[in-house]
Amino acid sequence: xxxxxxxxxxxxxxxxxxxFAAVVFFLFLAVTGVVLNHATELGLDTKYVxxxxxxxxxxxxxxxxxxxxxxxxxxxxxxNGRWLLDGRxxxxxxxxxxxxxxLPDMVVVASSASLYIYGKDGALIDRLEKGALPATPVQxxxxxxxxxxxxxxxxxxxxxxALSWRPAPRDAIAWSAPAELSAAERERYAQLLEPGVxxxxxxxxxxxxxxxxxxxxxxxxxxxxxxxxxxLSGAWLFLKPRHRRERx
Amino acid sequence: MxxxxxxxxxxxxxxLGAAAxxxxxxxxxxxxxxxxxxxxxxxxxxxxLTKDIQAQAAAILGHPPAQxxxxxxxxxxxxxxxxxxxGKEELITAGFVVADGRxxxxxxxxxxESRGQEVRHSSFLKQFKNAKLAQGNRLxxxxxGIVGATLSVGAMExxxxxxxxxxxxxxx
Lengths: 248, 172
Prior knowledge:
Helix content of chain B: 25-40%
Number of strands of chain B: 8
Radius of gyration of chain A: 30 Å
Radius of gyration of chain B: 18 Å
Oligomer: heterodimer
Order of helices and strands of chain B: HEHEHEEEEHEEH
Largest sheet of chain A: 5 strands, antiparallel
Strand content of chain B: 25-35%
Strand content of chain A: 25-35%
Order of helices and strands of chain A: HEHEEEEEEEEEEEEEEHEHH
Helix content of chain A: 25-40%
Number of domains of chain B: 1
Shape of chain A: elongated
Largest interface: A-B, 28 and 28 residues
Number of helices of chain B: 5
């Protein structure tokens, strides 16, 4: 048997072996690659996976909720950038709240730099930041005479519509204060407010191999080498017999 | 070793995300943009997004509007809208001055994405000058994209349409 024929048989055999061995990985890389290319259109950057094992795998130390803010019939518990407002979880990058106040037509949550104004049904009406607030950082939020009151380092301000602010008298204001949670409540709320990883990030880490830790990208590099070998051997197997026929 | 690598990955993710979200690049404070448009900052007005307005805004944005109340500033035929829309992962804050139903000028005020900042350049933003709404709440012109900033360009175009739509709606 000639050396060229031996080489042809060797390549054909290994082309098939490598292709078969890597088929699952190549399909996985192809599917995750296509999905990542359309991640924004599919809304994968806004979808999060919340699971204790995933958080542990990513090394995300979960923050346990310590207290709740309560006003009227509303309550707010926060941890891991997530809020649980009246039993409904929202957001992934929310700031730490400094208080919660119920007013006749709205429920207001304050962080040090912003106000979130909700309707009684929980729909977000408006989010006010630096330019729309009388001063920042907000130190406390309260209510008095059906007015929303903010305490800042620059003074205390009140408003009826969260649009125009005026200095507020310092007396007769019910300030929102955190209420301690029991151990059982902390446990329950910790499960509801587990930290999450975006689906896009997860897919990206799976696609690149980073999900598997330090050696994951090296494994994906090896697959890339296999793919290169398959391409070259495939091209050679395709062209060589044709070349031989043309020579005849 | 693997645990250390995973922790590094998590810390890197959190650090990058937090830095991008918290700081962004502030090119102009919204208050300054409003004051520049009017000479001084007038009192804000409010456009309540009724169900019908929400539906039309959702058709423009491709998703429901984030909030039910939109603040704006206006004097005579001129109005200013400070809008936010996600480019790829983070919000872009842009200011729109609308006069007589046409965009007078646009500025990117805060940019939080890691790439695509080219949308703040005047060579891109000048395309919006005098743009108005055409049929189907679309702009009366095509906006040329920027390679590498496709999603930010899309966000800017959607916000421009929304500003014009809100301006028209606020005038009844």
